[in-house]
Each structure stands twice: as structure tokens, then as C-alpha cells.
Hints:
Blueprint (H helix, E strand, L loop, with lengths): L7 E6 L4 H7 L1 E9 L4 H20 L4 H22 L7 E10 L2 E7 L3 E6 L2 E4 L6 H7 L5 H5 L21 E6 L6 E5 L1 H4 L4 H10 L2 H14 L8 E5 L24 H19 L3 H25 L15 E4 L4 H20 L7 H15 L3 H19 L14
Antiparallel strand pairs: 1-2, 2-3, 3-4, 4-7, 5-6, 5-8, 6-10, 8-9
Helix pairs in contact: 2-3, 7-8, 8-13, 9-10, 11-12, 11-13, 12-13
Amino acid sequence: MRRSSNQDCFAIALAEDRDQWEHAGHLFIVADGMGAHAAGELASRMSVDLIPHHYAKLNRGDAPAALMRAMEEANQEIYRRGQANPEFRSMGTTACALALLPMGAVVSHVGDSRVYRLRGTTLEQLTFDHSLVWEMRASGDLSEEALRSNAIPKNVITRSLGPSPTVQVDLEGPFPLQRGDRFLLCSDGLSGQLTDEEIGMLLGTLDIDKAVRGMVDLSNLRGGPDNITVVIAEVTDDTLTKAVGTSTTPRRPKVSYPIAFAIVAAICGLACLVLLLVRQFPLALISFAAAAVAAVTGWVKWQIASGTGERAEYLGKGPYRKYQCKPTAAFCQQLVEVIGQLQDWVKGNGTPIDLNAFDAKLAAGQEAIAAKNYKLAIVSLIDALIIIMREIKQIPDGNDDEAIEY
């Protein structure tokens, strides 16, 4: 509602056949550009063009590594393009990419564009926001009180593709797939206006088309300060939820036995042998105990670092947040209020709109609330919202004969 240009971009690359699915899966990308003079728009467009290209070229049996490397390659090309033109210097973009593969869902991301998974009524955020707020909270430098008071701007990001020749790309997953799973990718134009619980309720209640349209309309009605992009993917085929024979497997980084502990254990072991030879049995026993402690401690650290004790850092630490998103009376009432304000605006301006279908959906939503059927209420109210927003967007602007657009 407030931006003269759209710096968001997205891409969807679906596998054309079974062989391509087993090799590279389905790929979804959302990017949110930053920079003046159309630089942000260029950066985001380049990212959604380059990431699929490099992913296809680099994928030689290790899809997760190829996806991460594709983002790194895209970063280098965006950086070079920015350096070549003073108007585009320091341009950047967030990017989140989701690959649905035989091994599961793999996410690669930089910035604060997000990837969610909804399973049943449980919504999980699979990405970590590379923002000042999230980084400070993760390090323990931000109290919950400061977080609630918005003392730290939420739109300050700490990583993006383009401004620097190198970038740290996070890789998450693989997350197992189940029939009915829904994945949502979005720019912060959505997550900044809707709460995670609201996103989960809309995602779990509506069909995909209405969920996307309803989320965008509701975000705009709440002010629409930024561009809004939403991509939803749903697992509808049981064959996608079963792993197949493939060499594409996530690899954990190889970790060596801690050298310091190995040296200490060796020295203490050697000292034990020497002391035994000179019949210094008490000291030999102490040396043997020290060698054993060093060896066991080193082994434990080695096992943990190798991923035996916990998941390796290579595969990330997501999901990072989890919510229960059952439809609520409070959210339904919020929808009634915002729709009522929109209805009053239409009537107050004498706008020539056919409201019959809208009135029917609004009445159905209110009846469902009275019956405490909040899922049906959300469906009817979002239908009403989409109808009236569609009608409003067809109203000619007062300055010309073009319809209102956003």
C-alpha cells in the first residue's frame, strides 16, 4: 500500500517427471530486495533466476550441498553486478529456498524471509531470521521486555545476498514429509503484519488459493507498509513422503579426534610406562588415570562434534519456533472488525459495488461464530474479505480511468 515499486520476487520450479523429482525435487524461492534506484528489485530478480540455474548445474547427487552452493554463487554474481554500477552498489536481497526432495524438505536461506511448515494445527518456523533482533535474542543480549517494547527495530537484517563477496548461507533439514504438510515461504511484508498464529490458522483452514489471497489482503488492510509475497506448497501425493533409492544424502562434516586430548593422553600414557619401569607404582597409577580421563573426554567431544550426540551444525538447528494454531474466537472477531471497517468505508464513500455475495458470506461467518464453528467462520469471513477487496480494486482512481492497484 505504501511502496511505489515491488522489490519482492519468487520462483517455482517443479520437477517435470519422476527422474527429475528423485534427482532435484521441487524448488520454491522467495526473495526481498534492498537498495535504491531499483537496485533491490534487480537483486531479488537476479537471485530467483540464478539460484535455480546454479542448483541444476551443481547438483551431482548431493542436493542440499548444491542448494547451499547455488546461493553462494548467486551472491557472488549479485555482488559483481553491484560493483560494476555505482547506482547498484551495496544492493542486496534476502532469499529463502525450499527443496522438496525424496529425503525430505531442505531449506537454504539468508536474511529474514521465512519458511514455515504446517502439520495438522502445528506451525513450525524452519528458518532463523538473520536480523538484529533475532541475533541479539539468541546471544542473550535482548530481554523479553525489550522485545515486546520494540526497542530494537525488527527490520534490521544482518545477512543478505549481494553487499559482500562472500556470505554465510544457512542450511536446514531434511525435514520428513507427510501427506497434507503445507510449506509457506514469505517476505517480511507478510510476517510483519500477521502473527505466526494467524498465519497458521489461515494456512490450515483455507485452500491454497484463498490462503494466499486472504493473507495478502489482510496484510494490506493492516497498513501494507511493505511488499508482500507468499508461496504455498502442499504435499498431496503419498509417493513424495517415501524415500526412494538415491545417492542424494545429507553429509555431516568430518571431524577429527581432538588433538589436544590425544597429546595429553599419549604423554600421560608414556609417563605411566616409564614410571612402571622405575617401579614408581603410585605415580604410574596417577599417570594412567590422567591418560584415561584425557582419552575418554576427547572421545566424548569427538562423538558430539561428529553428530552422534546431536545433529551436526551443517544441517542447522530448525525448527526454531513452534505454535499451535487452532482457529479461535478472538481471531474471528478481529476479522469481523476489519471487514466491518472496510464495509463502512465503502458505504461512506458511496462506492457503486455489488455487495450481495459479500453480505451473504459475512452473515455466514457471523452465524458460524455464534455456533462456535471457528474454522467455518474463518473460511466465510475470508471469502467476504476477498470479495470486497476484489470489488474495491476495480474502482477507477479519481485521477484517471485506471483501477486502483497495489
